[in-house]
From TrEMBL:
Keywords: DNA-binding. Residues 4-59 form the DNA-binding protein Rv2175c wHTH domain. It comes from the Bacteria. It comes from Streptomyces orinoci (Streptoverticillium orinoci). It holds the Pfam family Rv2175c_wHTH. Residues 65-120 form the Rv2175c C-terminal domain. This is Rv2175c family DNA-binding protein. The keyword Iron does not apply. One of its GO terms (molecular function) is DNA binding.
Amino acid sequence: MTEIDAKIDALVPAWLTLPDVAEELGVEVTRVRQLVKEGQLIAVRRGENRVLQVPAEFIGGGRVIKGLSGTLTLLKDDGFSDEEMLEWLFTEDPTLPGTPVRALRENRGTEVKRRAQALAV
């Protein structure tokens, strides 16, 4: 396990495999793979078998949480790697308060996007 893997594991409380995500969303696994490919979801290889997994907090109410896709696009445009995006989304931000992913789950996406845009400056 690399240092970044350990850091992300410490930050992200729960993970879902792609078939689990497909079940939560009520779609085929191929659709979940497409969401990952399009950058609407982040999946990283984890565990002994290096299985692709998505943070469980990205899914809520049978869909990808509102605002996640746009936030990921902003971070990617800022040059963030998937691991750096996960680290940013799951790190406490006292100005929010809480983590950016929690703010997204609480429908406070505008605040999260504003902070993501500020990173580009």
